[in-house]
Design goal:
alpha/beta, about 900 residues, four-stranded antiparallel β-sheet
Length: about 900
């Protein structure tokens, strides 16, 4: 017997805390994450999606960083010179929100401080918080080159932002004008369409009478969800094909409460089906109305300001009211004066700021815009022709659909923290300059009385330059030459338009090359109940806590195992036990491998393939090498196609069930019987398994690497395994058959409740003399006896009475039960179990046949019932077969 407790440098249990920090510091000290630019190896580069300086590690970060780290380590092991550039984003709105919350507790606003003092606070925030999430990424094992850490407001990156703005402006792609924007009264800035999140909201639809000027007894009734904006109405509109209103077109109506005369216009953009078919037109506060106003030359009256309060352009009694207060007062006045016809319940989508959840206000505002149609065309082509590929492929259509209908991008924000727009105005002559460096005087009249535009750029403007600005653009740096275009981007589905599309457009515009070739859109992680995780709401799990409790490798492997390319998956703490248990299995297997190898005292050379069949046992090695060869092919292919879950599952199944359950057990028996010929195969295949596991579980594999005499200083310096050049022979099928026989005998023992210490006999019935020779005359019989706990294997040409049977390919296996169990008592037990199972199955069938259950039950509940149904059916089938065998 092998003594697992014998003296060894292996602790009995794997302790992540004793390993992870040690090896991460080892990697850093040896600069394994820093590329050698003098190397002749091919290049592979990823630039990290920069987390906000306001953030801490959440499950989305953990998943995305795990995916990127898997690819970096995989490619490094494949022989690439790899670079993973880390960094953080200044996150204008998010940082403003955090600082302004602190100021609010002191009874202050940013306007009380002023721009300069506020920016001092912002830089202090950055210095204090920016590195928190980066340090947390280190605990996860991120193989980033920290010497190249970037921040979107670093001087070099700020210069890149300014260069991009000026180039766009000089090309005529940037312009300034009054347009409808999404305004957040809480953040006090415009936000893009992509930063507005819509929520279904229950509200009212108010029907308001607008009298005609010529006959105030006659009215047009308009339905609206926003009666407060009627203070800015400058027209009523109907669809020209709506016969109900033909007589009204061209006439004049009176806006109630403000007594403003407005025209009644006809326009095909009016939805006949909404409300009464007639709509109020408020050009300064509705995007559709804005377009109508431009077509029909209507006036723009802004009646809500940047705080969402009524402006001085409204009647005095409403001025200064919030939009909510104004709504209540206007509805009261409408009802009092007989203008409110009726009110109906109504549900529609209301836009909210993605950052603070405040209802946004469509508002006419002077903003900077970037024309995108010209930029989008080549970015569309590069995806259509396959230069840029999306994984999973379904996201390609999502990207293209948006790009085909792209609108100009509002790039200005009314905030202070960020890249200030490089436009300067002369207060003497009114001239505007857009420059790469700050001017000292007006270039037209030479006046010194100049000032810079107050707005900053949308955070996503600098993010769009990230893949090349972090490599040194606009300078022609060695990093840029060596590593651009980058190879791979992993990101969240929510920012395909905000970020991915804009990076592709920017890369093509400024470098005439795509910024990356492969885009992987990872799943969104939900809670156990299917909700989006939210730290602020206390919903979800903290990856930092999970790493501390289970270890980084356990969390990483679990996340990858669950990443099945679905749109979402559910996650809760208990699921990390899968990775924790697997890590323990790997550790315990490593201890056994070390003991077997040390006990063998064999020289451990590189495996020579094909192996010579020196004895019966060597056939096991060839069989296992063939299986290992298939594993290498499958895992390599899965990672090349970004099928992380499939790669993880293949490794899990092979290591646990093929390597541990079979090969190691075979090696133990061989060792006990004086055969050490397994040593080279075991040593080298265990090495290959560690290397393939390393991208998923870097810490435990590095620790195990150093427990063996593998030549490389680190597992990171080894090579990804190549499939062994070995041809599978029919003889190896005998080993597969041997495993099937052992499994069948174990199943019979379990089903018939035969104690493990009660030996049984095995009878085999086959017409194949080759199979008989293998089972009765080779070492196979020895292995079957030990692993299945049987007395002997004999040949028979018929099934004995009262025996349990297993039917395999070209073979039947019988286990005589007489004398081992009370046959009649066992038959009664099985019949009773069959009746119980039939009752349970009937209930499940009734439930799954109930249309109401299928309509109302949650999808996961239905799936659970289907699994129960299948389990019951399979067990019933097996029990009935056993009952027949006992007759």
């Amino acid at each position: 017997m092998l003594n697992m407790s014998e003296k060894t440098d292996f602790p009995a249990q794997y302790n992540p805390k004793a390993v992870e920090k040690k090896w991460y510091n080892f990697w850093l000290e040896n600069k394994f994450f820093t590329p050698d630019l003098s190397s002749k190896k091919p290049r592979y580069c990823i630039t990290i999606p920069p987390p906000n300086i306001t953030g801490v590690l959440h499950m989305g970060h953990a998943l995305n960083s795990t995916i990127q780290d898997i690819m970096i380590r995989f490619k490094k092991l494949q022989g690439y010179e790899t670079l993973w550039v880390p960094g953080t984003d200044h996150a204008s709105i998010a940082t403003h929100n955090q600082i302004e919350k602190r100021l609010a507790k002191e009874g202050k606003t940013r306007f009380d401080l002023g721009r300069d003092e506020f920016l001092k606070l912002a830089w202090e925030w950055k210095e204090k918080h920016a590195n928190i999430i980066l340090e947390q990424l280190k605990t996860l094992g991120a193989a980033c080159d920290w010497s190249r850490t970037r921040f979107t407001m670093d001087p070099d990156l700020s210069r890149a932002v300014r260069e991009a703005f000026v180039r766009y402006y000089e090309k005529g792609l940037i312009y300034k004008g009054y347009y409808i924007v999404n305004w957040c009264p809480r953040c006090r800035t415009s936000i893009s369409d992509l930063e507005v999140k819509y929520k279904e909201t229950k509200t009212k639809l108010w029907f308001i009478k607008y009298p005609l000027k010529d006959n105030q007894e006659q009215c047009i009734v308009v339905a609206t969800t926003r009666p407060e904006t009627m203070l800015g109405d400058t027209a009523l509109a109907v669809n020209p094909s709506d016969f109900r209103y033909n007589e009204f077109i061209g006439k004049t109506a009176i806006v109630p409460l403000v007594n403003r005369e407005v025209p009644i216009i006809a326009d095909a953009r009016v939805d006949i089906e909404f409300g009464t078919g007639a709509v109020k037109v408020t050009p300064a506060h509705d995007p559709v109305d804005f377009e109508l106003a431009k077509t029909h030359n209507l006036a723009f009256i802004k009646i809500l300001d940047e705080d969402a309060r009524v402006t001085k352009d409204a009647p005095p009694k409403y001025q200064g009211l919030t939009r909510e207060e104004a709504r209540d007062q206007i509805l009261l006045d409408l009802e009092t004066n007989g203008y409110l016809l009726k009110t109906e319940d109504y549900e529609h989508r209301v836009g909210r700021c993605a950052r603070c959840d405040t209802i946004t206000e469509p508002m006419i505002s002077l903003q900077w815009f970037l024309k995108t149609k010209e930029l989008a065309a080549p970015a569309i082509k590069k995806v259509e022709d396959g230069t840029v590929k999306f994984y999973p492929e379904r996201w390609r259509k999502v990207y293209l659909d948006w790009m085909y209908n792209i609108k100009d991008w509002c790039i200005s924000r009314q905030l202070w923290w960020g890249h200030r727009i490089p436009a300067f105005y002369c207060d003497d002559c009114g001239y505007m300059m857009v420059t790469r460096t700050d001017p000292n005087e007006c270039s037209k009249c030479h006046s010194k009385n100049i000032r810079q535009d107050e707005d900053i750029l949308d955070t996503w403007f600098s993010s769009a330059l990230w893949p090349f600005s972090v490599l040194g653009w606009p300078e022609d740096t060695q990093d840029l030459r060596e590593f651009y275009p980058t190879n791979f981007l992993s990101t969240d589905p929510d920012i395909i338009f905000l970020w991915v599309a804009r990076m592709i457009m920017s890369g093509l515009e400024f470098l005439s090359q795509v910024p990356f070739y492969d885009v992987y859109i990872h799943s969104t992680i939900l809670t156990e109940t299917g909700e989006r995780m939210s730290r602020s709401k206390g919903i979800g799990v903290d990856p930092v806590i999970l790493i501390d409790k289970y270890g980084a490798c356990a969390l990483r492997f679990t996340l990858a195992y669950l990443e099945t390319e679905s749109q979402t998956y559910r996650f809760w703490e208990k699921r990390v036990e899968l990775g924790r248990n697997f890590a323990n299995k790997i550790w315990n297997a490593g201890r056994l491998v070390k003991i077997l190898l040390e006990a063998s005292e064999a020289p451990l050379n590189e495996l020579q393939i094909p192996l010579e069949l020196t004895n019966d046992f060597t056939l096991i090695d060839r069989w296992f090498i063939s299986k290992y060869k298939n594993l290498v092919i499958k895992v390599t292919s899965s990672l090349e196609r970004y099928q992380f879950s499939l790669a993880a599952q293949e490794l899990y199944e092979f290591f646990w069930h093929q390597f541990c359950d079979w090969y190691l057990e075979f090696c133990k028996i061989r060792k006990r019987n004086g055969d050490n010929s397994f040593a080279n195969c075991l040593y080298n295949i265990f090495k290959g398994l560690l290397v393939m596991l390393h991208p998923f579980m870097p810490f435990i594999t590095e620790e195990l690497w150093h427990k063996f005499s593998y030549p490389e200083k680190s597992i990171l310096l080894s090579s990804w395994p190549t499939p062994p050049e070995i041809a599978q022979t029919s003889q190896e099928d005998f080993i597969t058959l041997m495993c099937e026989i052992i499994t069948a005998l174990r199943s019979i023992r379990s089903e018939m409740r035969l104690p493990i210490n009660k030996p049984i006999d095995c009878l085999v019935n086959t017409s194949s003399q080759e199979i008989l020779n293998f089972l009765l005359k080779s070492k196979a019989s020895l292995i079957i006896k030990e692993l299945a706990k049987i007395n002997e294997i004999k040949q028979t040409d018929k099934r004995p009475p009262n025996s349990s049977t297993a039917v395999l390919k070209d073979l039947e296996v019988y286990v005589p039960l007489s004398g081992l169990i009370d046959i009649e008592k066992e038959k009664d037990r099985i019949k009773k179990e069959i009746l119980e199972l039939e009752t349970l199955l009937n209930k499940t069938n009734v439930l799954l046949g109930n249309p109401q259950f299928l309509e109302k039950a949650k999808l996961e509940v239905i799936e659970q019932e289907k699994v129960r149904q299948k389990t019951f059916e399979e067990k019933l089938k097996r029990l009935k077969a056993i009952l027949v065998s006992l007759e």
